[in-house]
Amino acid sequence: MGQLFAVEIIYRGVFQKTLAKNITRGIVLAAHNEGKLGISFGRYGDAPERNGIPAKSFAIIANDEQTLEAGMAQYEPKHVDLTVVLDDTLCKGAESWAWYGLQPVHHALKSGHTLIVVSLQDAPTLLKTIHRREEPYKLGILKGVTSFSGMWVYKDDHTDVRVLGAIAKALPELVSLKSVEKFITEKLKNSLKVTSTQTAYQRFTAVDVKPGKGNPEELFNFELLPWENMRNGVSIPGQPQGGPYADPVTKQTGGFRPARNELFKKYSTRTQRPVVNFSTCTKCTLCWLDCPDASFDVTPDGTYDANLEACCGCGICEAVCPVKDCVTMVNESLFHDNDSQWVRYKKDPHTYLKWLEKTIEMAEPDEKRSHGFRYRGQYQEQLPEALEVARKG
Amino acid sequence: MATTTLPVEVEKKIHEQEALITGAEAIAIACKLANVDVVTAYPIRPYDTVMQYISQLVADGEMDCEYIVAEGEHSQFEIVKHASICGARVFCGSSGVGWMYAMEALTVSPALRVPMVCMVGNRALDDPGAFGVEHNDALAVRDLGWLLTWVDNAQEALDTALIAYRVAEDRRMLVPLAISCDGAFLTHSQALVRIPAAEQVKQFLPRYDRGDLLLHPDNVISVAPQANEDWVMEIRRQNYAVTERACSVIREVYADFGRTFGRKYGNPFFEEYLTEDAEVVLLGMGTLSTRVRVAVRKLREQGKKVGFVRLRWFRPFAGPEIAKCLERFKAVGVIDRDFSFGSPNLSGVVATEVRSAMYTGASTRPPVLGFICGLGGREVTVHDVEKMTDIVFEAAKGVTQPLTQWIGLRG
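Predict the joint structure of the above. Result:
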């Protein structure tokens, strides 16, 4: 058997579907310039059609047809030579409709191979989020904001070719810079994009990540039952109703927390999360009422606490909240836990409110950016800045 | 034995009655006896006769049920599906393209384990718009986990409806069941039928209980969530397990039916007529049996040893038993009141199934000839049967015959 390569692109469903596809197509066509054969495909499922859900695209490359066929004879590659993460909030793990449980972003990455993340953060910060693993790997950061390039009206910000440049650097056996340049010149017919890919190639570096380094969080998993042990009638047990719970300080019980499915946590879908100012909340109920996922717990105080295992980060609560800065959506990558904000507030209101102020401040302006866009025209406004970041590398 | 001293109401309860009724009416009466909770209706010939009879029973105060006229067949079947999951005994039905319009609801009910009992008044599928019988409507669900049975007279229609509730609602089964009644020949012609007493039926038919599959506030479950490829195959395997059990459950229920009502059907899956010394047999489903029996008797007078096998249950298809039955004849002719365009040998559905069963289950394999006959309500005449028999005898002699022939066709 000849040489076989698999590249995995992890992206946010809908928003980055075209970008991911453009990259995997680019890999195949560039490698084809070297006489290699390949295919490009998306992991089939509902996920890529849903807002922000982690989804995957793949490129399989081989030297000959039989090797390629061997690489194609599976639903999705179990081991990849390169993983690209197009949104750094995905570093918290991929857990989509299709997979159950939480998978680390380097789940399929072969030992010693490279994980490329598009991010404004540095490696030590990202490693607070990326889960630890037994095998060593390399972490390379391609400086840039989360790109929507290729999505309907959003302008091309060259993320596709910058990723291709980084790939040529990280895995030259797969495809050379020369082949990538040829692909861009001949197929994309854009000399500026050639420059972008060259710059990305020159500036891209990766650091070694030693075994055991990274986020120690225990990944939650899911058991696939044999058919005899499954319930009949395509039925699953419902959730109990839920009920009141205790104030961490006064120990008094009250409020209402709905029971939630232990096997379906939505936090990996989130690119932003609501932070709540409990001191200015007027208890108007709107966030609780309008949340499409019933993710708000009614606290014993009568305020509303976004439960971060249930919140998918859509931002509707922020949109409907009538109080200024009471609910603010903040980029998910700034957080490293899913703890209750209300419990922290109750234990130490002063420290919490200071933290809140700082967090909201920090969120300006790029961190506030999310797949949820907070106002019309935000993307266009931020694009020059994003391009500037890309230029500087 | 009826006594004159008993009030009429009591007499009705404990004694069998006799009445001149149609096949559709027989099924309506079975619904009353089975104390069905929810009935949905939408008119289409020939099924609509049963909805008319049930509505009359309700109007006359003889039957107490929720009677819902839906705005189309899709809703008709969706409503009973939901009612059944909530613990109601349900009845509905349709014909021809009406049944096809309900197709989405029909496909989902086996996996959801819905024991809905339906009558299909068999009708040709459009186009051309036609009222007459053809079996392709009911057969459209043959691969989906439905139980399918064909009856040939009003008495059998009534009895089979009672049997249907026992089989479908059995905890080992819990799958939908359709009783096919040939349009016009059965649905619209009246015959003398013995109607069992309500007390007997009560004894035969226990309460419908779906246990922990019941959708109820006291049993909180979520039904029919979206699933991906990690689950679908296991769910299909569960329905496969039902089909593995189906034959033994049906046999059990028929035996109990015989004990309770004194009317014994013998082998539940097919009925044999003058096959003991037969050299060749014809095989078919539904009301064409009357003509075939008459023809068989006539042919026997001429010394031609022919018999008839009437298939009662198409799903489950009692393959090994049918193969064992048919292997002893010199040739078999299968009469299909349906078509399966492009199938192996271009035969009808039943002929194809019979050949498949014979391939694995029979020690000798006599020629199996397929006849496509009686489509769109065209009469299968005694003469047609004679013609088919002659062809089968030729095959028995070793004279090669076409594997599929159209009988009663002009031209």
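The radius of gyration of chain B is 21 Å.
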